[in-house]
Amino acid sequence: MPAPMFDPWIFGSELVFTVVAVAFCAAIYFRTRESYSLTKHEGIGYFRDAFLFFGLAYLMRFLLSVVFLSGMAFETPSGRDLLMPLFILPLGYFSTVAIFYLVFSTVWHHFDNRKMLVFGHTVAILLSLASFFARSPELLTYLQLALLAVALVSVFLIRKEEKRMTQTKLLYTLVFGLWLLNLWVTGRHHPFPEPVETLFLIVSLLVFVIIYFRVSKWAR
Amino acid sequence: MGTMKKRDRLEVIFDILRTVREHHNSIKPTPLLRHSNLSSSSFAEYYAELTAKGLVKEIVDKDSRKYVTLTDKGFKFLEKYQLIRGLIEEFEL
User: Do A72 and A80 contact (CB within 8 A), yes or no?
Assistant: First the structure.
């Protein structure tokens, strides 16, 4: 198979998406700073840290995409051996921690927070190491999908008295689902054509914008 | 018989700070304990937390009587409480 050519359109859309997504994640983090500093409320702490880590994860995803887009990953052994693992390791760690923290933000009352943190970071390190050694964003996607399924079933069991699907739950589901899709399309083995990939990016941005404006309503 | 909902941690802190403010920002620890509707041990725990977070401070008058007052951060907490509560409920935190 010939190496893919560098596509300036995909690069441009990835760059614009990453800049805006990271900016909104950072905005959510800084908007909630005062609420957290006044209360040290664990839920607010996990929530804002989740978006900090999502911002970092999307940044790493962009760097990984650039490696793939430039063809370095396929044409030169040094590109594949050095650059891709370099980015996939922090990508795996930041994104898994982001997923955990957003889940923790809603269930922190039910657990020993220290044990919960140790568990979350340990799993994040293991997942990032697995994707590092496999050199595969797809493997990371499948592992995070499995992790998310377990986490969501656990949340459902813990909060089973709240059966209603709220807008917030829907937004969280979209954040998780779109992250997995955006991660999946970073690799080579996915069924989506380019316009669908772009659609994922646009919907992801919309979700971050909605969350930011909902945060802004309360964090003035 | 009506049932009273158990206050969460943030609500207890809000009630303590509001009590201090309603007493012209100067109240002795013992009446503050009474107003808080907490056991002595719980109150001591909350009081230590409020001091550590810099929401209240102790002042001692010339007759060596101890008073509790709000700091700027304490006033800010009261001002922002409803918004913070809104954020917590909106995002189910």
Answer: yes
CB contact (8 A) between residue B91 and residue A47 = yes
Question: Rg of the Cα trace of chain B?
Answer: 14
For chain A, the first-to-last Cα distance in angstroms comes to: 54
Q: Do A105 and B80 touch (CB under 8 A)?
A: no
In a 3-state reduction of DSSP, which class is residue B34? helix
| Residues in A touching B7 (Cβ below 8 Å) | none
Can you give the pLDDT at residue A51? 97
- Helix, strand, or coil here: A113? helix
Which residue is associated with the tokens 């909106």? B90
Q: Please state the ipTM of this predicted complex.
A: 0.82
Q: Inter-chain contact A39–B13, Cβ cutoff 8 Å?
A: yes
Whether A117 shows a pLDDT value over 80: the answer reads: yes
- pTM of the predicted protein model: 0.87
Query: Is the CB of B48 inside 8 Å of chain A's CB atoms?
Result: no
A190 in B contact zone (CB under 8 Å):
no
Which domains are present in chain B? 9-87 (1.10.10.10)
Q: Could you give the angle at the alpha carbon of A68 between the alpha carbons of A66 and A70, nearest 5°?
A: 65
Phi and psi angles of residue B57, each rounded to the nearest 5 degrees, phi first: -140, 160
B54 vs A: CB within 8 A: no
SS3 B59: strand
- Which helix (H) or strand (E) segment holds residue B18: the answer is helix B9-22
